């Protein structure tokens, strides 16, 4: 079941369906962030916050440095984020948790990955979020996905929340065809 989908074909959906970050723009089916946005986080969050177990997927293209997806956001500065950062360390998947319960409100976990997006090329990026577990997959935009890395949050910081896209400073990506699908609940 599709929970949320945006083809980024209509700029009006940014204000209707998204809590739009500063500098967000849609043109020709691609969502970008303003290139003059050089400081601070710029998460683009959906207005829905009822996502629990889900599969989120989007086509991404690294313009400069990194691309990332926001998972289970409960506030602009309280969320899970998964990121590929080819400038600082292309060999890992970055799992970020912004939460008041952590030291200085922030944690990061680096998980080894054999698959990394190449700059300038479109890739399909997907994340399975099930309970406290996160699995990241990556592949060609029209090809099979390959598993990159997994992470568990034993503190179960967020069990639900909005989803979104991300940019910070000089790191920039482009996004298209974002989709969120429900996963069947697993009791056990």
Helix content: under 10%
CATH architecture grouping: Sandwich
**CATH topology title:** Jelly Rolls
Taken from the alpha-carbon principal axes, the silhouette is globular
Which strand order spans the largest sheet, edge to edge or round the barrel?
2-5-14-7-8-9-10
Q: What is the average per-residue confidence, as pLDDT, rounded to a whole number?
A: 90
**Could you tell me the number of beta strands?**
15
Structure description:
The protein has 188 residues and is mainly β. The chain has 1 helix and 15 strands; from the N terminus they run βαββββββββββββββ. The protein has a 7-stranded antiparallel sheet. Strands 1-15-6-11-12-13 form a 6-stranded antiparallel sheet, with no helix packed on it. Strand 8 and strand 9 (92-98) form a beta hairpin.
Brief overview, please?
The chain is an all-beta fold and 188 residues long.
């Amino acid at each position: 079941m599709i929970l949320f989908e945006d083809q980024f074909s209509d700029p009006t959906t940014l204000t209707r369906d998204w809590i739009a970050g500063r500098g967000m723009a849609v043109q020709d089916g691609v969502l970008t962030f303003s290139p003059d946005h050089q400081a601070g986080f710029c998460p683009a969050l959906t207005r829905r916050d009822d996502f629990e177990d889900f599969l989120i997927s989007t086509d991404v293209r690294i313009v400069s440095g990194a691309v990332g997806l926001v998972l289970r956001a409960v506030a602009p500065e309280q969320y899970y984020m998964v990121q590929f950062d080819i400038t600082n360390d292309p060999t890992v998947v970055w799992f970020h948790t912004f939460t008041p319960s952590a030291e200085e409100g922030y944690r990061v976990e680096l998980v080894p990955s054999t698959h990394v997006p190449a700059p300038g090329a479109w890739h399909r990026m997907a994340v399975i979020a099930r309970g406290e577990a996160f699995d990241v997959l990556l592949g060609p935009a029209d090809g099979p996905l390959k598993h990159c890395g997994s992470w568990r949050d034993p503190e179960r910081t967020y069990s639900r929340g909005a989803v979104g896209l991300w940019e910070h400073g000089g790191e920039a990506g482009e996004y298209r065809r974002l989709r969120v699908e429900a996963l069947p609940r697993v009791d056990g």
